[in-house]
């Protein structure tokens, strides 16, 4: 497959020779590179044999690189469902926009150097004011740690330090910096004053094609997922995870405490209704499976 560069936004292009490191121009994200591949769908797009082979390679390469970095990390997002299903003899849930990992905020500078040596750079994904376009901006480790209103990503770069899109390579990683408090609990990325249950920090290590892959606690992933807008594939992902036997009713109680504490502060009744419905559904699935065991 031919490698192609992402198109630059015309009014943002400075002279490449004058671009200091960490201040590359903004460019538009084009093609199947975001959750837009799922918008309006009740199910994730189907995983073809060719894409399954590429996902296997990408997930293995990411795991190898993260372990080589020596930094603390955990896989999260929909990829965690993939890994648990594959561990139990199943398959990928479908196609994903990118691969999601947690790292520690304090390790970002070290990871920037590590990824630069591997041919990757740090970027923030931003949106135009009218939300019609997604764009990425190359940033320093300092700005990456802060977020600056964008979603943090690691993208493959060319010899000039500019991002490129090559579907045959591991070209895009959503690497989310998090903090772990002195008591061992994760700081809630949606509520900096809140901490998540300490049991969620450890996660689990699984064997993925011969590599030691660290995945987040399933309730940690659901703490994000149950807040997602009402789209069909979100609910199907939640049902899949609830059916895999990796959640307990205590996990759901903890999840409810975290979710409702957030919502009490946000005072968003519409989101509260969505979250409450999803929590009830998760409990029903776990109870039904326990009774049928």
Automatic annotation (TrEMBL):
Residue numbers spanned by region Disordered: 1-22
Superkingdom assignment: Bacteria
Organism: Candidatus Harrisonbacteria bacterium CG10_big_fil_rev_8_21_14_0_10_49_15
Taxonomic lineage of the native organism: Bacteria, Candidatus Harrisoniibacteriota
UniProt protein name: Uncharacterized protein
Biased composition (Basic and acidic residues): 12-21
Alphabetized Gene3D superfamilies for the sequence: 3.30.460.40
């Amino acid at each position: 497959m031919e490698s192609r560069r992402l198109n630059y936004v015309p009014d943002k292009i400075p002279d490449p020779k004058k671009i200091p490191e960490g201040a590359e121009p903004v460019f538009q994200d084009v093609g199947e590179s975001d959750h837009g591949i799922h918008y309006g769908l009740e199910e994730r797009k189907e995983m073809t044999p060719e894409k399954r082979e590429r996902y296997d390679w990408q997930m293995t390469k990411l795991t190898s690189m993260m372990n080589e970095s020596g930094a603390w990390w955990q896989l999260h997002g929909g990829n965690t469902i993939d890994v648990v299903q594959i561990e139990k003899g199943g398959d990928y849930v479908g196609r994903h926009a990118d691969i999601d990992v947690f790292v520690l905020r304090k390790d970002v500078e070290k990871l920037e150097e590590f990824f630069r040596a591997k041919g990757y750079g740090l970027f923030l994904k931003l949106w135009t004011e009218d939300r019609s376009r997604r764009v990425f901006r190359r940033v320093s480790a300092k700005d990456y740690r802060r977020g600056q209103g964008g979603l943090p990503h690691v993208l493959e770069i060319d010899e000039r330090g500019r991002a490129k899109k090559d579907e045959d390579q591991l070209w895009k990683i959503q690497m989310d910096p998090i903090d772990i408090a002195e008591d061992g609990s994760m700081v809630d990325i949606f509520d900096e004053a809140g901490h998540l249950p300490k049991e969620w920090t450890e996660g689990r290590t699984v064997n993925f094609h011969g590599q030691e892959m660290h995945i987040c606690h399933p309730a940690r992933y659901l703490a994000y997922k149950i807040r997602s807008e009402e789209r069909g594939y979100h609910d199907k992902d939640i049902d899949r995870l609830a059916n895999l036997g990796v959640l307990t009713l205590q996990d759901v109680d903890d999840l409810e405490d975290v979710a409702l504490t957030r919502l009490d502060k946000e005072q968003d009744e519409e989101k509260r209704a969505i979250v409450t419905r999803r929590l009830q559904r998760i409990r029903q699935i776990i109870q039904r499976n326990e009774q049928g065991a």
